Amino acid sequence: MKKTRLDIQQDFLMTLLRPLVFIWMWFDAKRKVIRDPEFSFCRKEPYVLLANHTYMFDVVHVPLRIWKVPFIIASQTLFTKQPTKFLVSQVAHVISKSKGRSDTAAIMSIFSAVKRGYPILIFPEGDTTFYGETGYIEESTMKLIKKLKLDVITCNIRGGFLSRPRWGTGKRSRHYMELHYKKAISKEQLQDLTLDEINDIVKKELYQNAYEHQRIAMIPHKGKKLAEGIENAVYVCPHCQAINSIVSHENTFHCKECKKEGSIDKYGFIHDFVYDNLVDWNHYQRNFSDKLRNTTIESTGMLYFLNFDTLEQIEVGQIGLKYENGKFIFTGAHEKVLELSEVSNPTLTLRRDFGFVCEDQHYLVKLDSLGSAFLRVVQNKY
Predict the structure, then answer these.
(1) pLDDT at 352
(2) CATH T-level topology, domain 5-217
């Protein structure tokens, strides 16, 4: 199958821009690449490349060394606002995908790209980790791999999360990451594997606990605001079990209820609290889903309506969003009460962009705080 006119345009632009992107990523992070000899960056045949998602620029670092630039599966939200809309539709090879549900158009586009000779890059978690541990992977990814009948290459990314934790609002020095490429499943092996067996292999190859890696690497990431924003990730105090009581300032944070104070050091570890890392803290707070749903959660933010037919992001205005008694209550620029039972396809992108569908309307709320708490009241998958 021949390349399209857009393929040729994008190939040309990415070849032209590649040296500049290399320089940009050189300034972004110190990068160490470890490659399995069974996989070549110059490979011409299509394959599926899977990677864990540690921070925003993984999507640039992972395919950077690959000669034939893959088609990246990315959130459809990127197609609704400039400048990302221009980049993902005219410059880079990107296929729009709705997170958390089946997307027939995306699957057809993936098969078409493979027929035109391109590899496919998927971040199966769907978004960057909040806590430093590889997260939930949709079963649909395994079904797609099975149908594609291609070699499966994995890229295990290490070090990126603590360089730039998704929840953090403060800057950190010395960004560092390792990229470990491996041929995990050959197309011949794929034929004899069940979906569960594929799932087990993929999860094993992509699993990464940033804190376990850091206990050995001990790479410092200095900063003056290392704890700021932690309340976007954690919502249960492990000392008194209060909900949404954590407040951060510079390198410290405390619980408003029991007054217990903790801090985060230059290596990313927590001091003077029950847990010294967010992976264990998150495992603990997942036991409080019912208690979370029985509390009130409030934040301000900016509301947008997304139209995926016209690829528009329509600004509605500043709003207040409250969760209470199984309802989302909007005030300000949008006065509305939504039943939680009618909300579907909840997502949390970037640091705290909370999206969902209700009454055939796509909502996107750029929250000022408490992103994880709002997501967890709707679902407990991610």
Answers:
(1) 86
(2) Glycerol-3-phosphate (1)-acyltransferase (3.40.1130)
Partners of residue 263 on adjacent β-strands? 252, 271
Evaluate if residue 127 carries a pLDDT over 90.
no
Q: Which of 9, 5, 138 is nearest to 69 (CA)?
A: 9
Q: Which residues contact 322 (CB under 8 A, 6 or more apart)?
A: 296, 297, 298, 328, 329, 331
Provide the residue type at 112 as one letter.
S
Q: Which residue has the tokens 């493979």?
A: 114
If 0-12 CB within 10 Å is exposed, 13-18 middle and 19+ buried, where does residue 13 land? middle
Arithmetic mean of pLDDT, 272-278: 96
Where do the structural domains in the chain lie, given as residue ranges?
Answer: 5-217, 230-291, 296-378
What residues have CB less than 8 Å from 167, skipping those under 6 apart? 130, 229, 230, 232, 233, 351, 371, 372
Residue 272 and residue 275: Cα distance in Å, rounded? Answer: 8
pTM above 0.85, yes or no: yes
Look at domain 296-378 and name its CATH class. mainly beta
Beta carbons of 294 and 246 less than 8 angstroms apart: no
Contact between 174 and 219 under an 8 Å Cβ cutoff? The reply is: yes
Strands 176-185 and 152-158: antiparallel
pLDDT of 314:
93
Q: What is the pLDDT of residue 89?
A: 87
Q: Where are the alpha helices (DSSP H) in 223-358?
A: 278-285, 289-293
Give the pLDDT mean for 249-256: 96
Q: What is the mean pLDDT of residues 38-58?
A: 95
Residue corresponding to tokens 């804190």: 211
Q: And the tokens for 269?
A: 């570890």
2, amino acid identity: K
Q: 228: left (phi > 0), else alpha (psi -120 to 50), else beta?
A: beta
Beta bridge partner(s), residue 243: 236
pLDDT at position 254, please?
97
CA–CA distance, 262 with 67 (Å, rounded to integer):
46
